Amino acid sequence: MMNLAANRKMITIAAILAACALPLVITDEYALRVLNVFFIYSVVALSINLIVGFCGQLDMGRAAFMGLGAYWSAILAVRLHFPFFVAFLTAGIFAGLVGAILGFLCRKSSFDYLTLITIGFNVVCQVVFLNWIPVTNGAMGIPKVPVPEFFGFAFDTNLRFYYLALGFLVVCYVLIERITKSKLGRAFEAIRDDSIAASYSGINIQNFKVLNFAIGSVFTGLAGSLLVHYTQYASPFNYTLDESVYQLQMAILGGLGSLPGSLLGTLILVVAPEISRSFYEYRLVFVGFMMVIMMIYWPNGLLGKAGVGERLIGIMRFRKKEPEEAGR
Amino acid sequence: MNKRLAFLVMLIAVTLFGVSVASAADTIHFAVVGPMTGDSAGQGIQMKAGAQLAVDEINAKGGVNGKKMTFEVADDMATPNQAVIVAQKLSLDKKILFVVGHNNSSCSIAALPMWEKTGVPVISPSNTNPTLTRLGHKNYFRVVVNDDIMVNQVVKLAVKDLQVKKPALVWENSDYGKGMKDVALKALPALGVSLVGEESYVPGVDRDYSAIVTKFKGLGADGVLFLGDYTGAALLAKQAKNLNYKAKIVGASSIAHPKLIEIGGPAVEGVVSVTSFDPNDLRPKQAAFIKKYDSINKEKPGEWGAHAYDIVYLVKAAMEAGATDRASLIQKLQGGKSFDGVTGNIKFDKYGDVPDKKAFVITVKNGSFVSYKTK
Amino acid sequence: MLLQHLINGLSIGSIYALIAMGYNMVYGILELLNFAHGDVYAVGCFAALGLLTMGVHPALAIMAGIIVGFVINLFVEKLAYRPVRYSGRVTPTITAVGIAYIMRNAILKIWGPETFAFDIGVRGSNLQFGGIIIGTLQIYILLIAVSCMIGITLYLKKTKTGQGIIAISQSIPTAALMGVPVNRTISIVYGIGGALGVIGGILFCIYYDSIFIGIGFALGTIKAWMASIIGGVGSLKGAVMGAIMLGLMESMVSGYVSTLYKDAIVWLLLIAFVLIKPQGLFPAQVAEKI
């Protein structure tokens, strides 16, 4: 066990170092840009994984939170001339607050209704972005969002932004991993696996669901903010329902419940279409098949731990995490 | 661990791909950028088809200054974020002399700063939002009549020619429709009429206009300014007919499409539209182009195909007048002579607009478009 | 004007009703969030369009479309839903989204994203009462919706298979122990759901004389789902009433509030509704099995 853990640590550090050195090899601006977008979307996929994969709340409106973070940040920076880090950090807080409110409202809702509400919330947000013209500038969007800047140092090239985005990803990854490995994360998993059992173990399901939704939304909001400062343009057409489903697919492709999986899934869906023209054309059909096949044959991190079906056929299922759950 | 390995392999692949191949000097290479997948793919595919036709014709006649023309196609998916990535990729590719695109105004706004960094001339076949040419990008041109001119003409047509006294307005809720609505709201009071009603719809989603029709009927509007897509116009006309609402429908360019009649049937009889390209134009040059395009693509060209076709010839003319690279092409386009294309006379002003280009007026009569005589 | 807006809302609602019935049947009985419902029946509708343009008689084309919807849903159930039937809620929902993507993009590859005219030669006329106009087509659609509802209710109550379906909706293991052929019965439910969807979809196309990719997801799955939730999950009457409520809501909001914010307002009303009355207006008479 120790060996494995030490190994993992080594691999992680090596991967980070390799990522830091990568720009020595990759100097192409376009490749850097694709990687930067990949880093930011990875955080979105991680936040989806936290909500869907770890807590079993099927959120299909993540783009709305990305949009909330992006618009908050763009409005603060462009119209009110706040410095980047203020806009960026408050964007996360703002998205988290909205997430908390939405989560609170549907804390008692069943699985289906939460999905429906998140879809509805995405539509509502898009309509507001599109039509609240005095604030969001409507369909024309907010151009000329300033590049990220810390105390006079502007991340205005793809290379500089690379390290900012990489740092952002590493910090978010570590935070999310910490959360999932903490008591909190085990509570989320317990809720996902068997909410009734979880409630008997003294977990306040509703509060934890709200908390999960809020934490996930903070990360999505931060990612949305960073991306808008990178593309320098906030447009309502970036935060559609299709975009939400695409982000969900990133988390699914790598395996729900697996954090490295989210990175892999994002890598495939962000980078592969840029590399392969034919992959590009058939990507939507591909993700369709992928979703079906993954769920049937490779459901790790999800299927083996799900509970509802087994109860239906009345079979006590095999639980890997039994000792942990029983302990609480 | 395997996943990390896969990750590294992917990254290496990105690197290799990123290194652009040396350009061949004996061809003129450009890019067509628009939505090639998704709901508005039809427009992007038309752009591609129009450019392809022009390139084939030019190459068959020996090319431009002895050089063959080639192009590549890129998909901005009609989303601004993707448009920026495409711009990053192509603007650094030294082979690319100019760009035909984008189709959506929001994509142009997002991507233009990127194109401008390396000075790529971007010539749009379809961005009509008036504000675009006022953003100060020197590399941006458009061959389409902008909505300022177009919608002013629509309003004038409705008020002066059709004698509409109480107009109502329907606009599609997009950057396109919103831009047109703003112009119309300014133009109407200038002609001394005021709007009695204003409604919007979501293009590609809303299919029921009965609430709008009922409302307009109640308000007694005698004319509807329709600023949106042809599907919306056709369905609005149909549902107006079903509800016995007999207002005149006047629209701008994008409703002047053969599909308007196909979907609308007898209900669109009498619909009048201002357009920058008439798919049933009978003048010899235009008719020849339309016939050729139709025979290849099994579909008549809309304004996207026709404009893309014109853009390629426009650049050819500029090259023959001495343009050799991106910078000189921009110069030639800015100060260029007027160019006579299938969509009319193209001569850019200092903003990159085509103020002299005339939009014309067509109407539906006996199931086909005919030109409409304005006063 | 109010009356005319009401009539408009009723006609939109009756079209949603047919689509919602097929959806709610599967939803109520198997508790699967069938994200693919709309895109599956869209394939049936486009198949009918393809036959129409080839010059096949409209009645035959429509029949063929309905059969296509039925058969595709049988296959989809067998390949994508059956293997994950007992795997909780998230898994089958995701396979359903996957199927929706496959179907939608298959349509896009074959027909493209444009709107096509859908003309089978049926022209409704108008009945006028005072200033109020009612299309005969609208009345036919409402009649078809109601007769489908009655037909299915009878089928569920009077036939052996129908009773099997009801047994399955109560409890699959119990039904299996009582000798109900579970897999076959569930297949039938999906087949009927798909066929009903195609009927609704084709009526939609006839009513608006046009067909496009959006009849699947945006106007099918989502509206059917909304209607089911308003009306009550698992009840056919609920689906019809919920759909009509939804139609009225849309028509009233566009008529009296704002077309600009129509979608946002309708969604907000729905979200509020779900939070206040999650069981819907006409909850099904079956035991909850959560």
Question: Which key phrases capture this entry?
Answer:
heterotrimer, B: 375 residues, alpha/beta, Rossmann fold, 2 domains, seven-stranded mixed sheet, 12 helices, globular, C: 290 residues, mainly alpha, ABC transporter involved in vitamin B12 uptake, BtuC, two-stranded antiparallel sheet
Low-pLDDT residue spans of chain C: none
**From the helix content, strand content and strand pairing of chain C, which structural class follows?**
mainly alpha
Main sheet of chain A: which strands, in order across? 1-4
Cα shape of chain A: globular
**Lateral strand order in the biggest sheet of chain C:** 1-4
**What fold name goes in the CATH topology slot of chain C?**
ABC transporter involved in vitamin B12 uptake, BtuC
Q: What's the architecture of chain C in CATH terms?
A: Orthogonal Bundle
Low-confidence runs of chain A: 301-328
Q: For the largest interface in this structure, which chains are involved and how many residues does each contribute? A: A-C, 48 and 49 residues
CATH class of chain C: Mainly Alpha
Walk me through this protein's architecture.
The complex is a heterotrimer of chains A (328), B (375) and C (290). In chain A, a hairpin with a 2-residue loop joins strand 2 and strand 3. The C terminus of chain A is likely disordered. Chain A is mainly α. Chain A has a single domain, classed as ABC transporter involved in vitamin B12 uptake, BtuC, CATH 1.10.3470. Chain A has a two-stranded antiparallel ribbon. With 375 residues, chain B is α/β, with parallel strands linked by helices. Chain B folds into two domains: 205 residues, Rossmann fold; 128 residues, Response regulator (Rossmann fold, 3-Layer(aba) Sandwich), CATH 3.40.50. Chain B is 44% helix and 18% strand. Chain B contains twelve helices and 14 strands. In chain B, helix 8 links the parallel strand 8 and strand 9. The radius of gyration of chain B is 22 Å and the shape is globular. Chain C is mostly helical. Chain C has a single domain, classed as ABC transporter involved in vitamin B12 uptake, BtuC (Orthogonal Bundle). Chain C has eleven helices and four strands. In chain C, the strands form two sheets. In chain C, strands 1-4 form a two-stranded antiparallel ribbon. In chain C, strands 2-3 form a two-stranded antiparallel ribbon. In chain C, a hairpin with a 2-residue loop joins strand 2 and strand 3. In chain C, helix 1 runs antiparallel to helix 8. The model of chain C has no long low-confidence stretch (mean pLDDT 86). The interface between A and C is large, with 48 and 49 residues.
